[in-house]
Amino acid sequence: MAAEQEKKRVLVVDDDPSLLKLIGMRLTGAGYQIQSADNGKQALGILESFKPHLLISDLRMQGMDGMALFAATRERNPGLPVIILTAHGTIPDAIEATKKGVFSYLTKPFDSQQLLSTVDDAIRLHPVVEEDQQHKDSGSWRSAIISRSNKMEELLQQARQVADSDVSLLIHSQSGTGKELLANAIHQVSERSEAPFVPVNCAAIPETLFESELFGHVKGAFTGANREHVGLFQSANGGTLFLDEIGDMPLNFQVKLLRALQEREVRPVGATQSVPIDVRIISATHRDLEQAISEGNFREDLYYRLNVVELRLPPLADRRDDIPLLVNHFLNQVLSRSKKKVTGFSDEAMEVLIAAPWPGNVRQLQNVVEQTVALCNGPLIPTELVQKALRDKPSSLPTFARARDEFERRYLADLLKATEGNVTQAARIAGRNRTEFYKLLDKHHLTPDAFRE
After folding, report:
1. What pLDDT, on a 0 to 100 scale, did the predictor assign at position 49?
2. How confident is the chain (453 residues) per 10-residue block, as mean pLDDT?
3. 102, 128, 154 - which closes a domain
4. Separation CA 267–CA 351 (nearest Å)
5. Start and end of every Sigma-54 factor interaction domain (predicted)?
6. Among 282, 277, 195, 206, residue whose Cα is nearest residue 248
7. Where are the alpha helices (DSSP H) in 33-111?
8. What pLDDT score was predicted for residue 229?
9. What is the pLDDT of residue 446?
10. What CA–CA distances, in Å, run from 136 to 85, 123, 140, 157, 413?
């Protein structure tokens, strides 16, 4: 077996000493770490400290049989795969066990290749999250990032290296990959970890409120400013400010942000004095900012200020070996707040999940797990439910940014229709000056002439 399996732990339970020894020898020779028990109660005691990746148990044993051990194990560790050993006369019972969530069964006698192949499939399709791997050499800074793929390991090593340097970071990735999780992990392992981590979704802030939200405002600065508002820069002082979807930041605010970063101070709206700030900036985007620069939608000087080090977070389709881990993680989350008696996904369903294209990345995977659990009527989630969930849209609701853009476009179009393309009149109704109004029209590709009679 491959070197990566040398650390995989298997607990074997059987009341036949000769069979127990034989299985132990075969698996040890293949590079697995083995613990043995000759009854179910002894196995439960071993489970408290051994933490195996796989449980192999005989079906028929004195006292606690294989299915009773399976049920007790499921309560403690729902994600642990179980293989049942059975004699020819008990094959129907073993088949029924697989319907209840047992990974597979082996009929005695079985050959070595059949045993090793089944063990390999069980660990591959139903991996157990390694607590020591999640915290290895790093405390708990990366514990929220569920992964074992080489690509993610390389990225996390790079992130760990730059965490303490305090330079600005730009995370580039598709939507739904977990940019905020990565940014927060970097903050947790940095020297700023005792100070706040403040996430900001730039796509969710209306253009007119950017300066107030990030820099704050004093009382009476504008209509409706009934009290002083501390901006997000000041809220993150001493810590990390995470600017998600930085590519959606309005062009007219970008120069103000650049000045704040250069001078390390912000001036709240309506204030006469600037306020010093000490924040580390981590920004993120799914857009091609270099193309946005060439199109005049993003400032080149701000881009180089933010992109001192770039981290590229891989899409889920490029880290498929993480999918079983993530599925089990999300499944346990759902079951912890649900009364459902689901034990897991069928092997075929897990294969479908691993092979799916995942345009919505980890966020879509989480949605599929939640949807299939909600619709499942038995202990195992079947392939059909997974395929249906993959065909459905991840959500029937648009994102906030898309809904806001749709509203703005329709609102502006209705204004131009009502005023027959009279920009001065339309801008007055909208409460904007002509320059701002023209920028909004350009943003949504609306031409006043098209609305004139």
Report:
1. 82
2. 61 91 91 91 87 91 88 80 83 76 84 90 77 47 84 89 90 93 94 93 88 89 80 94 94 93 92 92 94 94 95 93 91 86 87 92 95 91 92 58 78 85 87 86 83 75
3. 128
4. 55
5. 145-374
6. 206
7. 40-50, 66-76, 91-99
8. 87
9. 84
10. 35, 21, 8, 12, 56
What tokens were used for 115? Answer: 């045993």
Q: What is the pLDDT of residue 32?
A: 92
For residues 346 and 7, what is the distance between their CA atoms, to the nearest angstrom?
A: 26
Q: Tell me the C-alpha distance between 92 and 59, whole Å.
A: 12
Regarding whether 306 and 183 lie in a shared domain, the answer is: yes
Give the DSSP letter of residue 55.
Answer: E
Tokens 């881990």 identify what position? Answer: 325
Question: Does residue 142 share a domain with residue 284?
Answer: yes
Please check whether residue 59 is in contact with residue 14, taking contact to mean a CB–CB distance below 8 angstroms.
no
Query: Is residue 303 within 8 Å of 293, Cβ to Cβ?
Result: yes
DSSP 266-298: E--BT-SS-EE---EEEEEESS-HHHHHHTTSS
- Host domain of residue 424: 400-451
3-state secondary structure (DSSP) of residue 440:
helix
Residue ending a domain, among 391, 410, 432, is 391
Number of domains in the chain: 4
CA pair distance 295, 299, nearest whole angstrom: 10
What one-letter code names the amino acid at 116? L
Provide the pLDDT for residue 292: 93
